[in-house]
Design brief:
The complex is a heterodimer.
Chain A lengths: L1 H11 L1 H8 L5 H4 L10 E2 L9 H5 L6 E5 L10 E5 L9 H5 L7 E2 L17 E5 L9 H5 L7 E4 L2 E4 L9 H5 L6 E5 L3 H21 L1 H4 L8 E6 L1 H10 L3 H14 L1 E7 L9 H5 L5 E4 L3 E4 L9 H5 L5 E10 L8 E8 L6
Antiparallel strand pairs in A: 1-4, 2-3, 5-8, 6-7, 9-14, 10-13, 11-12, 13-14
Helix pairs in contact in A: 8-10, 8-11
Chain B lengths: L1 H11 L1 E7 L5 H10 L10 E3 L8 E5 L6 H11 L5 E5 L2 H4 L22 E3 L6 H24 L4 H5 L6
Parallel strand pairs in B: 1-2, 1-3, 3-4, 4-5
Helix pairs in contact in B: 1-5, 2-5
The chains are: A alpha+beta, B alpha/beta.
């Protein structure tokens, strides 16, 4: 009985009646909060035309690299444009953008920097959660150092502030690459070794362009490249055998080269590719016809997909380092035609 | 006199039919969020019935799959004049992530039925959907209601273009 009276009293109040008659959503609910990740913002002056944003984008129509025309004063600039009708606001493009400051801004994720080790050690050990099978062998090995490896959220994690860098976890890990030892020092030297190896392999593949050009889809083309010379040159850069071996292995494991061949005999000078090329690598001259500058080429495959006459060929190369010592070892190169559709 | 009375009534009572033509249901869930007390769609006089026979606004969410191509046109033809079509999210606009090489979606939806308003986003915020319905809904329905008297038949409007 008392509750009925209380309800009647409550409903009879003027403020309740006013609220009831004029129910509205609060303005702050309707407003977009500042943390909301909206469509990416493009700052074209910083773009280096690397194409990382287009490769990272999961939506087919969302992002495209365009290039303004050259004029008498300056060369045209390349920059990405975002199509709001295709963009899913995931922010991947901003995360992969390598320029400093970033060309693309989207949300806050890409402002987060990775933590760096504070312990003075040569290598940084990290567990790649994508490859980790959670067998916990690293945890068993690492019993002596309390808390260096732990299980957080069903994922194995190495605490960088406690790790002493002994490397036992790498030795006992059954999955190749699940625990990674990253050389923290000599970054510049590592970069020059990577440049050396990638450039050498690429020029080696270029020598065989004539044979690659006529590959039919199921066929693959194989080259064995001896590592002796590469190892010698790398030792001149830095005389540290295990670092060189490690860098070589990482390059051959991860590198996926995109190869673009150019069959000039088939070209009919239709010039469809000239305006499509995002980096301006393809030019047209009345005397020389359509020319491609391999140094400017981004290997983005747009010309391959545009050309109706099969002038550009598009191939993928993967690499494998043999287990022999570097002086006798081989880098096995496998080249196969890409499965990208053409027009 | 009768027209202005109809306009007032049409503007303050909008019936919505949500058609999900093969998407990931993300946009549908944003529309459901609109129905919740937090956004409270009905305070604006908008009702979601999911019945094209009594709809003023048709919301399309989805990239128009093989099976939906003809059904979408049939649903559009079933809705009584005046009617407004709003494309929710990127799927009906461009096919979004489903419009991959070798995929079989037939976006954009405007190839099949006339689309009056577009909301981009994947998914758009509920407030964006609400703003779009309110921006296009009342006035467009009122003006279309007058046009319909001028002899536009349903069949003419439902005619879809060829896929480019």
């Amino acid at each position: 009985m008392s509750s009925v009276i209380w309800y009647l009293y409550e409903f009879a109040r003027k403020s309740w009646a006013e609220k009831f008659a004029d129910a509205k959503t609060d303005q702050e609910i309707m407003e977009t909060p500042s943390r909301f990740r909206d469509f990416p913002e493009v700052r074209k002056e910083y773009c280096i035309a690397c194409g990382a944003c287009t490769a990272a984008c999961p939506a087919p129509m969302a992002i495209k690299l365009v290039r303004t025309k050259d004029n008498t004063h300056e060369k045209g600039i390349t920059y990405p444009i975002i199509n709001n009708r295709g963009c899913i606001r995931c922010g991947f493009c901003a995360e992969v953008c390598p320029t400093e400051p970033k060309t693309l801004l989207c949300g806050e994720n890409h402002h987060i920097r990775e933590k760096f080790t504070i312990f003075p050690q040569e290598k940084l050990y990290v567990i790649d959660d994508y490859l980790c099978i959670r067998c916990k062998k690293c945890l068993e090995t690492c019993k002596n150092v309390a808390g260096a490896i732990s299980e957080v959220d069903k994922k194995m994690v190495i605490d960088q502030s406690k790790c002493i860098g002994c490397g036992d976890c790498v030795k006992n890990c059954p999955v190749k690459g699940a625990v990674k030892a990253i050389y923290v020092d000599h970054v510049e030297e590592q970069k020059s070794i990577i440049n050396l190896v990638v450039n050498t392999l690429e020029s080696r593949i270029d020598e065989d362009q004539d044979k690659i050009m006529f590959l039919e889809p199921p066929e693959v083309y194989k080259i064995d490249y001896p590592t002796y010379e590469l190892a010698q040159k790398a030792r001149e850069i830095i005389p540290q055998e295990d670092l060189i071996r490690d860098t070589f292995e990482k390059i051959t494991d991860r590198l996926k080269l995109r190869i673009l061949t150019w069959n000039e005999e088939k070209c009919t000078d239709c010039r469809l590719c000239v305006s499509e090329c995002p980096s301006g690598a393809i030019t047209y001259d009345e005397e020389e016809g359509v020319k491609r500058d391999p140094d400017k080429c981004l290997r983005c495959s747009i010309c391959y997909q545009t050309c109706p006459f099969d002038v550009p060929g598009y191939y993928l190369a993967r690499f494998q380092l043999t287990d022999d010592p570097l002086d006798e070892g081989l880098i096995q190169i496998t080249i196969k035609p890409s499965k990208l559709p053409t027009q | 006199m009768l027209d202005s009375l109809k306009d007032v009534i049409r503007k303050s009572s909008i019936h919505v039919c949500l058609v999900s033509t093969g998407g990931c249901n993300g946009c549908d869930i944003e529309v459901v969020a609109l129905l919740s007390p937090r956004y409270d769609l009905e305070q604006y006089g908008i009702y979601v019935h999911n019945n094209p026979r009594e709809a003023d606004v048709i919301l399309i969410a989805g990239a128009v799959t093989e099976q939906w191509r003809e059904k979408l046109q049939r649903i559009y033809a079933k809705a009584p004049e005046p009617k407004v079509v709003v494309a929710v999210g990127n799927c009906p606009l461009s096919g979004d992530v489903f419009n991959q090489e070798g995929g079989s979606v037939y976006a954009p939806a405007s190839d099949f039925i006339p689309v009056d308003a577009e909301i981009s986003g994947c998914p758009p915020r509920p407030s964006e959907i609400l703003a779009a319905i309110l921006a296009v809904g009342p006035d467009a329905i009122a003006t279309k209601g007058r046009q319909a008297k001028g002899g536009h038949t349903v069949e003419e409007k439902a005619e879809g273009g060829e896929k480019v």
